[in-house]
């Protein structure tokens, strides 16, 4: 900013006099007696009953209030802000946006991050991006989940990071490439690898494999965690190879990632736990559904969805909620929310009917999530129609 | 369980059960919950009488039954939810929602009676004149209540504001309320004259007390000047609290609040600005004092400003009856809602309205303010930022009219366009200076301008800039929320400006509207 621009309002007191008066008042009249400027003498004489210091204070204060703010020279738009608005995915339509915010505002504190991340992943799967104005509210819940961070979300993180140390800020630098990425700090490399995975999962994996052996354990674990983006069956050979890595961190990361890919022993074990939970033999249902929502599929097949809705465990939970007589017992333990999160859209109306008799306080977060999924489905179809028309 | 088994079968038996529970010293709460369950699916007058906290509430509800008090009354198709808006004594209408089948309710008024007269009036109207409720879809604020309300059932505790809080008062009678209303006679003229004389005497006494308070304020300001403003921040809390208490005693609560706010506000600005902020605020207090003492010499509008700044209030009815008060009947966009707890334990709830059809001589912006005691619990503006309304705002007489009361309200069209605002900051700042010249102790003033950009001018500092070379810094607490507006293209903005920092209220951008909503 440059110097102040003078005000068009005229008050009979010069800038120098104002500075002197200000200094006197700041130091205190006990230390430095007030010398009223000559221009004010006649004004002060007109009201001899008033204390001159108060009259001078009033005029000086008012004179200051007319000082205009400093002028400004444009700095140009920061790259992060430019990228934030360059994201080509369509912005989430208004109706679905309101539902997403209702999910965010209604989510239970303990599960808010997981529920909101699940909802945002659903938004991303439908091909939309979050409205930029909602990012300040949501980013705290989704920034830990790389799958929720598209270009706009990462750009917002970079914009909000005034220290410039955020890993996301590196994504906005053009100089990092597959040739020189190993020379960058770890956070930058992880961010770059995630970006590569997002662009081309196989190329990203190849890039990782090319450096994995030469990296220290701490770096290896973080780089392997970047496979989180675009995770799929093609990554399994690499992940299974890492299960015998000498670093425990790497082994754990690889095991957790493989358990999310259908067909792996970890996945099957979790699926068995889910099956047992559905028959009410040993495992609580909500955590198993949460696992399914976080898996690569992210959603139950129609068969599994139907099995879930007709399972004795699920029905017993709904009946229990119906019979509950205390606020604590009426609270959803996560079963309803996670059911809404994993059900395919075609089963959501049946889900809504099944919990219609429950109180809104119990069902509202789950219903909001279900409504969001249905709205996304409708918006996606509308978008595809519109795209089809454009192409025609 | 004993109650549950008997309730709904034989009312006498149920009452015996309640008596049994109460005699045994069991929880009153249980008795209330059971009583609520006694209420069957539909509302009857008998149930409303049981719910009413006292006879006076029913009398007050009866007075609210006029259609004019309810610009909006609606229900869902099966009448399982009723809602309405009632224009009370606040600047914004009270929003009432009732669930007849389980007698749940919510009203945004600050009454400490549960249910309040507005809820009772809605229930009563539903019994007597159900045709006044238009069928329709529940709006967002009703849905919101529905989703947040606590479940009701035996053993369930009920929060304040929902049916069942407070013991039932079987003494209240609707028939009696009607009889009382009919029997109400015009007041005795002599009694009216006596009351008027008494009011006049009290007013004169207050004038004298206020003038003494102003003298004390002057002495205090001189003390501060003598000690020096550079060190004011260190002694602000103690110094302002002592004098503000005395100003409350001197019946000048407006000045007391300004002084209390000064103690808090100086810590919201960077350290290097604090001395200047104190200087300007003390100067404004001095000006108010001088204006009040010389109010006979001031134009009527500025005199009204001086009296309001000291703490004299104008009742809503007086304002609406004032034919000289500026009025604007138009479509408005609810630009922002903002709630803040004042040091006097009142929550100030601001609702900012933007005139969508600006015209010469009509204010472009209206500010509705409601004050609600903090002890009432969480409360917020009944309006949602972004919604549109059509209505008449009556502004308090002022040299720079801004604050007003919503006098009438009608449904507004769904898609209200953002108004065309002057380009650049120069015109907006000039309007601010003109308002400041007319009303010298102005605290803040709305700036409305288009073709602006939001830029980062420091690590945590954003500013609104325009091509004419001006920039106004934004309050730092808004930085995170406003980051997505950087680089979004030219924006059209409504913000408030206090001469140092702007507070964004709303912005119209290429990707939609941004609204401030803080409670």
Please supply descriptive tags for the structure shown above:
heterodimer; A: 392 residues; mainly alpha; elongated; B: 519 residues; alpha+beta; 5-stranded mixed beta sheet; 5-stranded mixed barrel
Task: Report on the architecture of this protein.
The complex is a heterodimer of chains A (392) and B (519). By secondary structure, chain A is mainly alpha-helical. Chain A has helices at residues 15-27, 38-46, 52-65, 79-86, 94-106, 112-125, 135-142, 151-160, 167-171, 186-199, 201-212, 217-225, 236-242, 248-258, 265-278, 285-294, 302-310, 312-323, 327-330, 335-342, 348-354, 360-391. In chain A, helix 1 (15-27) packs across helix 3 (52-65), helix 16 (285-294) runs parallel beside helix 20 (335-342) and helix 20 runs parallel beside helix 22. The longest helix of chain A has 32 residues, at 360-391. Chain B starts with a helix and ends with a strand. In chain B, strand 9 (388-395) and strand 10 (403-410) form a beta hairpin. Chain B has helices at residues 2-6, 11-23, 28-38, 45-51, 55-63, 117-128, 140-148, 174-183, 189-227, 232-249, 253-265, 271-293, 300-310, 316-321, 425-438, 479-482, and strands at 72-75, 82-86, 94-99, 104-107, 134-135, 327-341, 346-355, 365-373, 388-395, 403-410, 445-458, 461-466, 471-473, 491-497, 502-509, 512-518. In chain B, strands 4-3-2-1-5 form a five-stranded mixed β-sheet, with helices on one face. Chain B has a five-stranded mixed barrel with strand order 6-7-8-10-9. Chain B has 519 residues and is α+β, with helices and mostly antiparallel strands. The model of chain B is unreliable at 1-15, 20-41 and 153-169 (pLDDT under 50). Chains A and B meet through helix 1, helix 3, helix 4, helix 8 and helix 22 of A and helix 7, helix 9, helix 12, helix 15 and strand 11 of B.
């Amino acid at each position: 900013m440059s110097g102040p621009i003078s005000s068009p309002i005229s008050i009979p007191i010069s800038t120098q006099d104002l500075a002197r008066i200000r200094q006197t008042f700041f130091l205190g009249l006990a230390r430095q007696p007030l010398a009223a400027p000559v221009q004010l003498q006649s004004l002060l004489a007109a009201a001899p009953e008033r204390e001159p210091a108060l009259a001078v204070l009033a005029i000086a204060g008012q004179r200051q209030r007319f000082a205009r703010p400093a002028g400004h020279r444009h700095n140009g738009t920061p790259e992060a802000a430019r990228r934030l608005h360059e994201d080509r995915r369509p912005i989430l339509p208004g109706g679905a946006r309101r539902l997403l915010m209702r999910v965010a505002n209604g989510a239970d504190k303990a599960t808010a991050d997981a529920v909101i991340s699940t909802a945002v992943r659903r938004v991303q799967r439908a091909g939309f991006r979050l409205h930029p104005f909602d990012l300040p509210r949501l980013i705290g819940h989704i920034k830990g989940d790389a799958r929720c961070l598209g270009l706009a979300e990462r750009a917002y993180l970079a914009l909000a990071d005034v220290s410039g140390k955020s890993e996301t800020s590196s994504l906005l630098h053009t100089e990092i490439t597959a040739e020189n990425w190993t020379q960058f700090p770890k956070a930058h490399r992880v961010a770059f690898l995630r970006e590569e995975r997002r662009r081309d999962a196989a190329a990203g994996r190849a890039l990782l494999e090319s450096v994995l052996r030469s990296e220290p354990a701490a770096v290896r674990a973080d780089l392997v965690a970047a496979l989180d983006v675009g995770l799929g069956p093609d990554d399994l050979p690499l992940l299974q190879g890492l299960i015998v890595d000498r670093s425990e961190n790497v082994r754990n990361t690889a095991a957790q990632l493989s358990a999310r890919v259908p067909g792996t022993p970890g996945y099957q074990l979790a699926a068995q736990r889910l099956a047992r939970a559905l028959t009410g033999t040993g495992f609580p249902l909500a955590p198993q559904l949460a696992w399914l929502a976080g898996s690569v599929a992210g959603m139950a097949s129609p068969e599994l969805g139907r099995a879930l809705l007709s399972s004795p465990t699920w029905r017993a939970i709904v009946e229990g909620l119906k019979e509950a007589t205390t606020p604590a017992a009426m609270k959803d333990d996560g079963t309803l929310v996670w059911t809404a999160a994993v059900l395919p859209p075609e089963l959501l109306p049946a889900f809504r009917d099944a919990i219609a008799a429950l109180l809104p306080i119990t069902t509202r977060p789950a219903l909001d999530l279900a409504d969001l999924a249905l709205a996304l489905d409708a918006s996606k179809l509308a978008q595809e129609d519109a795209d089809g028309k454009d192409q025609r | 369980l004993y109650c549950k088994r008997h309730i709904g079968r034989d009312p006498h038996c149920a009452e015996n059960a309640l008596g049994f529970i109460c005699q045994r010293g069991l929880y009153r709460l249980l008795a209330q919950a059971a009583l609520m369950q006694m209420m069957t699916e539909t509302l009857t007058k008998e149930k409303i009488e049981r719910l009413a906290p006292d006879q006076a509430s029913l009398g007050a509800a009866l007075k609210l039954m006029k259609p004019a008090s309810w610009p909006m009354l609606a229900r869902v198709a099966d009448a399982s939810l009723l809602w309405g808006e009632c224009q009370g004594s606040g600047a914004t209408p009270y929003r009432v929602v009732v669930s007849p089948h389980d007698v749940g309710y919510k009203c945004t008024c600050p009454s400490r009676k549960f249910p309040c007269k507005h809820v009772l009036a809605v229930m009563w109207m539903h019994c007597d004149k159900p045709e006044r409720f238009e069928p329709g879809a529940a709006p967002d604020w009703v849905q919101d209540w529905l989703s947040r309300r606590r479940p009701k059932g035996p053993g369930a505790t009920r929060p304040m504001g929902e049916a069942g809080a407070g013991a039932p008062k079987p003494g209240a009678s609707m028939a009696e309320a009607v009889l009382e209303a009919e029997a109400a006679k015009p007041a005795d003229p002599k009694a009216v004259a006596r009351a008027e004389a008494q009011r006049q005497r009290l007013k004169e006494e207050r004038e004298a007390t206020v003038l003494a308070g102003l003298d004390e304020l002057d002495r205090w300001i001189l003390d501060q000047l003598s000690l020096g403003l550079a060190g004011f921040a260190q002694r602000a809390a103690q110094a302002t609290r002592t004098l503000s208490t005395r100003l409350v005693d001197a019946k000048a609560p407006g000045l007391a609040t300004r002084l209390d706010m000064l103690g808090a506000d100086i810590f919201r600005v960077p350290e290097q600005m604090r001395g200047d902020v104190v200087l300007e605020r003390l100067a404004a207090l001095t000006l108010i004092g001088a204006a009040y003492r010389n109010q006979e010499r001031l134009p009527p509008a500025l005199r009204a400003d001086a009296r309001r700044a000291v703490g004299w209030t104008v009742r809503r009815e007086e304002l609406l009856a004032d034919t000289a008060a500026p009025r604007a009947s138009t479509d408005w966009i609810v630009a922002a809602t903002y709630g803040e707890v004042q040091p006097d334990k009142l929550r100030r709830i601001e609702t900012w309205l933007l005139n969508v059809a600006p015209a010469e001589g009509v204010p472009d912006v209206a500010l509705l303010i409601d004050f609600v005691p903090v002890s009432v619990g969480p409360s917020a503006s009944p309006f949602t930022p972004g919604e549109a309304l059509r209505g008449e705002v009556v502004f308090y007489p002022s040299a720079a009219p801004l604050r007003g009361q919503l006098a009438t309200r009608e449904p507004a069209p769904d898609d209200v366009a953002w108004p065309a605002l002057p380009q650049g900051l120069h015109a907006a700042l000039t309007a601010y200076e003109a308002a400041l010249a007319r009303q010298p102790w102005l605290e803040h003033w709305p700036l409305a301008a288009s073709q602006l950009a939001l830029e980062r001018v420091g690590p945590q500092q954003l500013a609104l800039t325009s091509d004419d070379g001006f920039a106004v810094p934004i309050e730092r607490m808004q930085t995170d929320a406003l980051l997505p507006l950087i680089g979004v293209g030219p924006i059209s903005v409504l913000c408030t400006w206090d001469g140092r920092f702007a507070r964004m209220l709303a912005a119209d951008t290429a990707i939609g509207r941004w609204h401030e909503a803080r409670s």
